[in-house]
Design goal:
This protein is an all-alpha fold. 60% of the residues lie in helices and 0% in strands.
Length: 80
Amino acid sequence: MATGAKGRPNSQSSGGYSNYSADAPVDVGNDSDSDTFAIILIVVLLVVLLLLIPLIAWMYVDVRQMELRVNKALTRIEGK
């Protein structure tokens, strides 16, 4: 057994809390790259969607206001 700086034995198990559960099997072959790519893709799509919705709404309101102005101008021209 190896000893530490002050003569204490180094051990792998410190007896403290650990992220590893002895009952749960360890999945060594889990490839998290595909999960990461999917998460990034979903986040990017959500950001694009959240940016496009206000832009499309603003464009709709702008077109609608222009349509109302044109209709008002046409009625004024037709009235003369």
